[in-house]
Design brief:
about 400 residues; mainly beta; Neuraminidase; 5-stranded antiparallel sheet; about 10% helix
């Protein structure tokens, strides 16, 4: 008699369970998810129709990690998942996916979304993932954090997850001068009367322990924004400056009590980076780093800006990529003595991972051919034909 594995039966049941059925089995939006390691070829580059919204991080020993999401026919369309790759040669070549977060293939069901990477002050690497699941709970969108104590190991073992907020989180955490780790989350909610942690606005959560859920700290409702995608930096007077995505450019809010209460003030800018993601953070030198699309209307002219006066002026600028459709940057700086940040960004047809120096006017670049993806090389970027050539050669190495 032919037998059917019990797991297959459970997966079939789960796929057909309505929300009420999941409740019967005790499944809620707070039921922890899991990762899949050594994923099969279905997740390899040639099987993807699109990909984007990347994040990058560097381990203490120099190993690079990158994540983004893909699956289905487009962003938020069908079977989306998040994947993780790594590089041991400064981004010259990248691994096949070493892990994926694919809720649609798990017993609990759901879909994946935005993810990001962050190296905490103790040298542990975090991978924050996003799940959307129509099950009982105060909000269908939840963020979960996995971490590893061996970020320089390409076969690192991951611990967790811990609950990290209602909504999605695609930007890095910030550590305040008094040691609090702040974590930014957007519930993507239009409700102003929902339970506070799931209410419309830019939310701040804080780390409470490696085996404990993050704790909600504060929030602010940002006007004229479809997605807040906010980031925080601390100023010299101890106040926190929040920048958020807005339809007109970049919104601004401040907190004088370490993120517990906020007030939105006049816009940061209406002159560039209209309705798109940016990167905002503090370098080890104390300067503020802002990476934006320095254009009044389009997602082009990706530019790094530095401020030495808490963001009042931006005295130093470096064009990283002048092409159209290069957007959604993330960046990191080596935890060692190196002063060279690395950046990853989306593009249509290809995406760049750049390294640049605060003291050098010439960035290092190499895109990978794909719909929207991450890659890198050590070829110096001098003209568009040079970049295109680097794109093709790097893609062959990756695939």
């Amino acid at each position: 008699m032919k037998t059917i594995p019990l797991l297959c039966i459970l997966l079939a049941i789960s796929a057909s369970l309505p929300v009420a059925g999941r409740e019967t089995f005790g499944i809620t939006t707070l039921t922890p998810p899991r990762l899949e390691f050594n994923p099969n070829p279905a997740y390899w580059p040639r099987m993807r129709l699109w990909q984007g919204i990347p994040s990058i991080e560097r381990a203490p020993g120099g190993r690079l990690w990158a994540t983004w999401y893909s699956g289905g026919i487009g962003e938020g369309k069908g079977h989306n998942y998040q994947l993780l790759v790594t590089s041991g040669n400064d981004g010259l070549t990248w691994s096949k996916p070493v892990a994926v977060f694919d809720p649609g293939r798990q017993l609990l069901g759901g879909a994946g979304g935005d993810a990001h990477l962050w190296l905490d002050p103790n040298g542990r690497l975090w991978w924050f993932v996003h799940r959307v699941m129509q099950s009982p709970g105060i909000h269908p969108r939840t963020c979960w954090g996995f971490h590893t104590t061996e970020p320089d190991n390409p076969k690192a073992k991951w611990r967790g997850p811990v609950f990290a907020g209602y909504g999605y989180s695609l930007n890095k955490e910030f550590v305040t001068s008094d040691g609090e780790w702040l974590h930014m989350v957007d519930p993507m909610s239009k409700k102003t009367d929902a339970p506070l942690p799931a209410r419309k606005g830019a939310h701040v959560w804080k780390f409470t322990g490696y085996d404990k859920p993050f704790e909600h700290t504060g929030h602010v409702e940002i006007k004229d924004t479809p997605f807040t995608e906010h980031m925080i930096a601390e100023r010299k007077d101890g106040s926190l400056l929040m920048l958020a995505r807005a339809k007109y450019g970049i919104a601004r809010a401040v907190s004088n009590d370490k993120g517990r209460t906020w007030r939105e003030i006049e816009p940061f800018t209406k002159d560039f980076n209209v309705n798109t993601r940016f990167y905002f953070g503090k370098l080890k030198s104390g300067s503020l780093l802002l990476i934006v699309n320095d254009h009044p209307r389009k997602r082009e002219n990706m530019t790094a800006m530095l401020s030495d006066d808490d963001g009042k002026t931006w005295q130093h600028k470096l064009v990283l990529d002048e092409r159209t459709h290069v957007s959604y940057p993330d960046a990191t700086q080596s935890p060692t003595a190196s002063s060279t940040p690395s950046m990853i960004a989306d593009a249509i047809k290809r995406t760049c991972r750049k390294s640049f120096s605060q003291n050098s006017p010439r960035p290092i670049s190499a895109p990978e051919r794909s719909s929207r993806k991450a890659a890198s090389s050590n070829a110096k970027s001098t003209s568009s034909p040079t970049k295109a050539a680097a794109c093709v050669s790097t893609a062959r190495a990756l695939e």
